[in-house]
Every structure is written in structure tokens, then in C-alpha cells.
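Researcher: Here's the sequence for the chain we discussed earlier.
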Amino acid sequence: MKKIDTMITAFRDGFQSVYGARVYTNDYLPAIEATRAAGLTHFEAGGGARFQAPVFYCNENPFEAMDAFRRAAGPAANLQTLARGVNVVALDSQSSDIVRLHAVLFKRHGMTTIRNFDALNDVDNLVDSGQFIHDAGLRHEICISMMALPPGCTGAHDADFYERTMRVILDAGIPYDSVCFKDASGTSTPATIFDTIQRARRRFPAGTRIVFHTHDTAGTGIACYLAALHGGADQVDLSMAPVSGGTCQPDVISLWHALRGSEFDLDLNIDKIIEAESVLKECMKDYFMPPEAKAVEPLIPFSPMPGGALTANTQMMRDNGILDRYPEVIKAMGEVVRRGGFGTSVTPVSQFYFQQAFNNVMFGPWKKIAKGYGKMVLGYFGRTPVPPDPDIVKQAAEQLKLEPTTRKVLAINDADPAKGEAACRALLKEAGINNPGDEAIFITASCGKKGIDFLLGKAVPNGVRKRVPTAAVPAAAAAGYTVSVNGRSYTVVINGDKAEVNGKPYDVSVVEGVSAATNGAEAVKPASTVGATLPVHAPMPGKVVRIPVKVGDPVDLNGVLLVLEAMKMELEVKSPSAGKVAAINVSAGDQVQAGQILISLTDVA
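Model: Thanks. This is the structure I predict for it:
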């Protein structure tokens, strides 16, 4: 009987695949302790979206979260994180000094192993990043990214392609401790998985530890794991309810059951595992469970959307009131993959695919090239598995005003004065932080302005979909009010001594069950529209992130009036005419709907 090892992914990939990684650390620590008590010692403990999300949504320091994870898991646990090659834990790629700092800091904060992948399977992006991980004293799990191509596509993502990638890895001499085949979309066929892992067993030196990872989004997760085990895999990744199945990894109990009576054994105390799952369910009972997170989607192989991105994107569309457009976006994704060079649908490429499909639906096919997708087809993230469609490359170059490149990503970034430790120190000094530590520098590099706001104490929890106790206020107030002021609607949600107006926090006073915002009146009071002759409408739903103009400012034709954020993209709203700003009807942080009047102009040309 062959013992099969497992890594528990519930506390990283599970959270990302269900809650968009928006989970408060203290809420799940008891479940880590219960899982440790059940005898499990290998945990996915951070990285991926669980670095940016604590900063962006939870107002938490991700390094402190890693420290807390280590305390809960114990000193002997193998704590593993996920890195995206030279992107490390960001959507954009980084310079060499930041990639090196990533490994140093993750070692410092208690991590044991880093799984290191490149979404394009461009091995150049794994050479330096892998060496830095090894040099920091961490275990390096080098990773090959997998998916199935949409029907009718050929040229990559078959066993021959993966074996060519294996050869390049070995020829590059990258130090590694184990090899992982990672299918974030759950679309690879069992036959391809079996063939690939058999070839890996022959290609890599005897005794090499081989790991397989998939999601159950297409409903084939257990079949894929069985194929991997019969092919010769030593370890598979499994999750725990309620963050298992569907967009997540198969449940550890499900695979335990599937292996009963076979030649494989997970060697687990199943009763203690069941008990640990009950603790995790209790920990997560107040978090909103999107129905699509637990569903099997048979059409995913036609538009490969990874579980870790699917619910994050549907939740953003739900927030913007456009979830009804999701089927159109997923349908449009097939063409985006076909014409984009077959990068694996895993972060950040999966987000690029979705953003481009979203733009194709909202603005018309290829009318607006998403920045990430455009930079990918132009070569700024490395070599795609096959050349992208030349027409798409041409459109990306024209729209983004960038020339195609074949330079290595680190070489580009190391020559960019806007990247690296020195650039981060300058940004922090400008913000008033004069002696930043390594952690502050890395948070700035990975999280940008939002990271600096967090470091300055300006960030507030937002977007965490968790029920809050509301015993201190009437039921109607706890559920939320919708009010109208001068024709504009506001949603007011009150919880105890706190309130939100259109998603923004305000202090409140509660007197005999009647609550009122005490510091929100000015922020939500519409500006005067006297004399305005030209309204500027929101082209799509989104969140206002910046307003670079003020009432009375002159503006030129196509001058930037406001910046919206939607689907992790920023959209500049430009002036349709020269004129003067007469009224600004929104504030930074407001959620707006398509067609809503944002700004009004007067004295227009």
C-alpha cells in the first residue's frame, strides 16, 4: 500500500476560491489548531491572493497573519506559500531586489516552502526567483502550470508541451526540492495528467517528490487525482469543508473515501478530520457563501476560469450590480484565450483573460485592451506558449502605446526607475514614512498606494462579506436603509455604534432606536449643479478611487475628471469637452452605477 501525502489548502486556496481571500485571520485560527490536532502537518499558509487581500480588504498585515499561522500550526509544521515567479504575490511583475526580498521575508515570518510557478510557463521567470527561494533557506517547489485548451486549439498544454517545459527546467539548473503540476482551472483531462506525471517520473531524477494540484470546478477533481496517483504522484492537495469541492480542491474526506480498498492510503484519522472540519464550518458560519463557489460548471473547459478567480470575479460583478452579465463574459473568454497565446489560466493571466473578456462585453470586442492582457501579448510578462494573434498584438501596441518586446522580465523591471526598493523608499518618504522596514517596502511594492494607505493607518476593512452581530440596533436598521436625497440614493447599514453609507464607514449615535450618521452628512451631500450644462455619466459600474479635479477647475477636452475601479482595473473618465467643473456629485470610495452622473461641466466649448 502506497501512502499518499497531502497539503491542506483550506486556509489559502480554499479561502481565495470561495471568499476572494477576504477572511479575517483571527476567525480561522481555531480551525488550524483543530487540524493540527487531527494529525495534519502540511498547510498552505499564505501567498497568492492571501497577501494583497488582507491589506486591501481586511486592514490586516499579511506578515502578522503568517506569524499567527505559525503559532497556531506549531513549530514542526510545513507551512507553504504560493508565489507567481517574478510577480511573487502581486498582479504585476517585480524587480530583482523585490523578488529576493520576498523570499527573505517569508522565511523570516515562519514559512517553510514556497511553491513557485509562472503562468506562461516561461522558465526564465523561475530561474532567479527559484534561486532566491533556495538561497533564503526555504524549500523550493518548482511548478508547471496546467490547463486544457478550449476545443479546437492545439500547440500547448498537452503532455508533449509539459515535457518540453520539464527539459528546460532541468537544463536551467534551477535548485528545487519538489515538483508540482498545478491546474488552477480544473480543466486538464485525466489522460493528460496520467501521461504527464508518468513522463515526469521518468524525466526527473529518481526519488523526486511529485505533487499534483487541481480544483473541482468542472466536477472531475477526484478523477484527476486518481489519474495523478496512478501516474506516480507522491502528494495531492486537498481542502476541508466548507471550502472544498466546486471552485476549491476536493475535500480530504472525499478522496479518503474514493481510495478505500485501493492500493493508496492517505493514512489519516478520519474521525479527527471530521471533527476539524466541524470547527472550520463553525469558524466560517458568518461569511457569505456565493452559490457558484459550490457548483460544478461543465462549460469551464471551454472558457477555463480558475476557481481562485471565478468567485472573486463574480463577487465583484455582484458588488457592481452586473452579475447578470457574467455568462456573456465567460462565453467571451474562450476567444480571449485562443488569441492571447495560451498562457495558463492562473493568476495573473486568468485575471487578464477575465478583464479582457469583460471589456469585450462591456465596450465591444477589442475596443478596449485591458492593460494586463495587452502587456502579456506584447511580451512584458515573458514568452507566451504560442505566439499571440498578430492583430491583437497590433491593437495592444496602439492602445497601450507600447512596443512588443522579447527582453527578459527582470531585465525590463531592473531598468525601470519606478520599480524596486529605491522607488518604494521614495514613495514612502513622500508619504511621511522616513525609515521603513523591509516589510513596509515589500507591502508597498506589492500593494501600491493601497499598501501605503494601510501603512499610514488610513485603510479600513471593506468588502469582507461577513455578517456582523446587530443586537444593539433594531432589525430594520441592521438590515440597512435605502434613502433618497435630492434624487440620489444612499444605502445606510448600521451595526452597533458603526454605520456604512454606500459602503463607506461613518460613526453613528443611536438614540431610542433612531440612528443617524454624525460625520457623513458632508460627504454624501450632493454638490450644487447650478449652471451645469453638460453631465458626465459613469460609462460602467465601479468604485470611485480618485478625483483629480475640484469645483471651479478648468478642464481640457479628454482631460481626466475621475478614475473608477472595477474588476481590478482602473478606468479614466475623461471630459467630453473643454469647460469648467461645475459640480462633483460623488466622493472617493463611492460605488456608482452605469449612467450615474458623476460630474457636471459648464462653459463648455
